[in-house]
């Protein structure tokens, strides 16, 4: 935040703190979620955020909210900021399909793309184990699913397509193998070499991928022996198509690649909603930067859209509730640079003048829940105030220069959950000590 912006924030901070003190409610146990559950009402889209990708409390509170929404509001499935193939294995395990894995550790141990800890962690394991037990009370077609919404799994998605077509569609298989061969020279670096090559030959493998997608979509009505595997094959083809577009956009400056990714996640949500029927309801787990409305941040001025904005624009009549998260201090799992070993990193106290600092003062160091309809018309909240965002790469010594997103909080979220002090996530892939189950597992699930 600029110095002048900090001064403006400080001018209003006492008024903001007093307002939050009057309107935010305590958050100590699941009963304290009642105002949130009531506020959600009949909404069909509930978006649950996080201010980092490595914080224990964000995962456990999201799980508690999700359990209540499934049990009390009849929500149909969970969609997360994760790769489709990895999360699809979790989905099959949670639904109790045959040969879907002997235990949660063996299923999660197959997560191998950095950063593995985002979903291969004991917090997610506890939720999936709970979901598996919950699902046993229902027939297979009514069980609650768990799906990845992201775009990054090109290689894994292509492998899944080929494995499926080998058994079901020899003609489409030949087309898929042609597309795979086109990409083989660029397989080593998550699309970066493909992005560079596409700057010289813009179409590169686009024609082959589109041919594969068209052929699979055309033949979907004939793939009818396992409806969910058919959905998965179709989804993997869309991932290949949109990942190819994403890779080509990577080489350019600007918002294009970000928008391709978030538009892909929204189209995946739409596809899943259609698959689950007209009464379907979805719970989305993603970072605040995706689920909070981009128009309430400086993202909008840079031409960026996100999942929260697009779902609000497209599904307002069906109800969209976005829940943001934040914390004052604690610890987090992250890397110092891309591809770095995961490590526990201290999160310093939030900077003076930030949203997190204001909540800390208002709550006297306690966790709080705030419904934005209580404060949305307050003038003192109508300007941009810094709101902390931590990614998979985190260097706290640089935090005040790049980790605070100027935000109009009542416009970005419908509800905000503030955790005063957080702790680091518990990854499953721990090195060098191997698999260590936390003493408090399964965290009250």
Your description of this structure?
This protein has 445 residues and is α/β, with parallel strands linked by helices. Helices cover 45% and strands 13% of the residues. It has 17 helices and eleven strands. Helix 7 runs antiparallel to helix 8 and helix 8 runs antiparallel to helix 10. The radius of gyration is 22 Å and the shape is globular. The N terminus is likely disordered. Pfam families: Erythro_esteras. It comes from Flavobacterium ranwuense. InterPro entries: Emycin_Estase, Hydrolase/PRTase-associated, UCP036794_erythomycin. This is Erythromycin esterase family protein.
Spans of at least 5 consecutive residues with low confidence: 1-11
Number of helices: 17
Let me know the average pLDDT. Answer: 91
Beta fraction: 5-15%
Label the structural class.
alpha/beta
Let me know the largest β-sheet.
9 strands, mixed
Principal-axes shape call: globular
Rg from Cα = 22 Å
In N-to-C order, the SSE pattern is HEHEHEHHHEHHHHHHEHHEEHEEHEHE
Q: How many β-strand runs? A: 11
Q: How much helix is in the residues? A: 40-55%
Summarize the structure.
The chain has 445 residues and is of the alpha/beta class.
List the topology elements:
Layout: H1 3-23, E1 25-26, H2 34-40, E2 45-48, H3 56-73, E3 77-80, H4 84-94, H5 104-108, H6 122-135, E4 145-148, H7 154-168, H8 170-183, H9 192-198, H10 206-219, H11 227-250, H12 256-276, E5 282-285, H13 288-291, H14 307-315, E6 320-334, E7 343-347, H15 355-363, E8 368-371, E9 385-388, H16 399-402, E10 404-407, H17 409-412, E11 415-421
Parallel strand pairs: 2-5, 2-6, 3-4, 3-5, 6-11
Antiparallel strand pairs: 1-8, 6-7, 8-11, 9-10
Helix pairs in contact: 1-15, 3-6, 4-6, 7-8, 7-11, 8-10, 9-11, 10-11, 11-12
């Amino acid at each position: 935040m600029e110095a002048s912006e900090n001064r403006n924030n400080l001018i209003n901070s006492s008024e903001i703190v007093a307002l939050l003190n009057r309107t935010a409610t305590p958050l100590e146990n699941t009963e304290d979620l009642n105002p949130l559950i009531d506020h959600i009402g009949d909404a069909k889209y509930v978006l649950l955020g996080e201010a980092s990708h490595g914080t224990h409390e964000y995962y456990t509170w999201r799980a508690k909210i999700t359990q209540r929404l499934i049990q009390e509001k009849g929500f149909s499935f969970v969609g997360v900021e994760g790769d489709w193939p990895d999360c699809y294995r979790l989905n099959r395990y949670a639904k109790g399909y045959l040969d879907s894995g002997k235990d949660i550790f063996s299923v999660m141990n197959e997560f191998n793309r950095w950063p593995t800890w985002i979903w291969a962690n004991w917090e997610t394991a506890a939720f999936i184990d709970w979901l598996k037990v919950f699902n046993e009370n229902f027939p297979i077609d009514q069980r609650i699913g768990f799906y990845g919404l992201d775009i990054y799994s090109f290689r894994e998605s292509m492998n899944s397509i080929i494995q499926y077509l080998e058994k079901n569609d020899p003609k489409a298989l030949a087309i898929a193998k042609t597309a795979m061969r086109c990409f083989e020279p660029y397989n080593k670096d998550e699309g970066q070499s493909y992005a560079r090559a596409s700057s010289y030959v813009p179409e590169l493998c686009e024609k082959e991928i589109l041919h594969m997608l068209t052929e699979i979509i055309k033949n979907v009505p004939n793939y009818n022996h396992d409806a969910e595997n058919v959905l998965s094959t179709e989804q993997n083809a869309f991932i290949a198509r949109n990942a190819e577009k994403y890779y080509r956009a990577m080489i350019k400056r600007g918002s294009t690649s970000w928008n391709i990714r978030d538009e892909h996640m929204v189209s995946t949500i739409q596809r899943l909603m259609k698959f689950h029927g007209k009464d379907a309801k979805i719970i989305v787990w993603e970072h605040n930067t995706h689920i909070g409305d981009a128009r309430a941040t400086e993202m909008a001025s840079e031409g960026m859209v996100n999942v929260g904005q697009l779902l609000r624009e497209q599904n307002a009549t069906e109800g969209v509730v976005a829940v943001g998260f934040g914390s004052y201090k604690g610890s987090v799992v992250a890397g110092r640079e891309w591809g770095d070993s995961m490590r526990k990193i201290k999160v310093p106290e939030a900077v003076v003048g930030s949203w997190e600092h204001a909540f800390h003062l208002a709550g006297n160091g306690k966790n709080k829940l705030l419904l934005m309809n209580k404060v949305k018309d307050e003038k003192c909240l109508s300007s941009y105030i810094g709101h902390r965002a931590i990614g998979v790469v985190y260097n706290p010594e640089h935090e005040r220069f790049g980790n605070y997103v100027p935000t109009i909080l009542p416009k970005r979220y419908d509800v905000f959950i503030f955790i005063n002090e957080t702790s680091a996530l518990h990854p499953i892939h721990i090195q060098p000590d191997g698999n260590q189950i936390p003493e408090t597992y399964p965290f009250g699930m």
